[in-house]
Amino acid sequence: MSRAKVVYVCQSCGHQSPKWMGKCPQCGKWETFVEEVISSAPSAPAMVGHGLSPQPLTEIEWGREQRVLTGIGEFDRVLGGGIMPASIVLVGGEPGIGKSTLFLQILHHLAERKRRVLYVSGEESPEQIRIRAERIGALSDKLFVIFETAYEMIEKTIQEMAPEIVVIDSIQTMHLGELPSAPGSVGQIRETGGRFARLSKTLGIPIFLIGHVTKEGAIAGPKVLEHLVDAVLYFESPRDQPYRILRGIKNRYGPTNEIAVFEMTGGGIREVTNPSELFVGQRALDNPGSVVVPCLEGSRPLLVEIQALVAPTNFGVPRRTAIGLDPNRLALLVAVLEKKMNMPLGEQDIFVNAAGGLRITETAVDLGVIAAIASSFYDKPLAPEMVVFGEVGLAGEVRGVMQSDLRVQEAVRMGFTACVCPAKHQIRAKASHPFKLHLVENVRDALKKLLKLAI
Predict the structure, then answer these.
(1) Of the residues 241, 273, 305, which one is the last residue of a structural domain?
(2) With 60 as the cut, is the pLDDT of residue 209 above it?
(3) Whole-prediction pTM
(4) Domain limits at 423?
(5) Kind and range of the H or E element at 446?
């Protein structure tokens, strides 16, 4: 008789150990080892390949695949223009953020176009899904629902039904009977994810895998799962905000770092086609410490309000707090202001916030952050019709950033009439009304333009 072997597997990276360990030596995570049972039975015979011979790349025949539009423009744009046939997409997000609701609406739109779609749930019963579908208006006789967690039964159902699109909710609940480990373990997620990927390529059916995230924000399970799929999307929710952001992290069929903005309502998820208005529509005019910066998320320009508050500190060490921005970058910019502009910020608390809860990582907001801090420090409001962007170096120079034309065009579309930007750019602003560009080479020139300071 075959004997079972017990190993301890890190649920973060998949590292195996013969004994339990508090800290994983491979990924450095604590308390991630879980006991798993591995059968020592003889391994199955090797799989037979396709038997194809190598051929020159130029002789491979191909045709442009027609993408499938979901009816939700924001979702299609993140995928690169729609769902690619025979693709497998991994979508992660926190519990309750709206992943299941979004895909139920997507499948409903596809079913309304006479497409057979299948929703496989391993967490909710068909009755629960029916209740949600009635609430958001997603009932259709072309939308099929099944409650199942065994991969073998799901594969059989897909082969018999031949749906055009499949959603698996969620990958952490799926399991293979031939593996003795529990659902959600590293071995189960890795193997079932690989089986679904092969099934998608073999049958030519797009499959979406919904996954949970850990407390660190990464998709639960081994990192190899993200390498198996064609696209990885993360569903984010700024704290205490009604909107959701769908961000593309990996995409073999389109651009990465694209975002889509949705609003959670009682009737489901509604796409936001003009996110710039969402982020700057509530700003207070003539308020010191406030500036509008055109950011770039993927290929989409967004206008975001940067707020700064400078106040005398009550402690020995002044605070430097950044919300939605890199705190290390904030400390660098404050040092530039102290050194190049002789601003006495050593006894001032500085708080900087990206209004609306948006997380900004690009350096194009540097000049906007500096302008907001100086505006709050001197208690002088910036012109409300002006936008600011540019990277700031350690010498106080204003460096150029990419896609300046797109940023300016977005500012023009939203009604702004002036812009302070790096002098290195040749910007061609196409506007139906006068738009004035203030080209600056360093921080001193920028603050002279913005605050009219005699410095």
Answers:
(1) 273
(2) yes
(3) 0.78
(4) 278-451
(5) helix 443-451
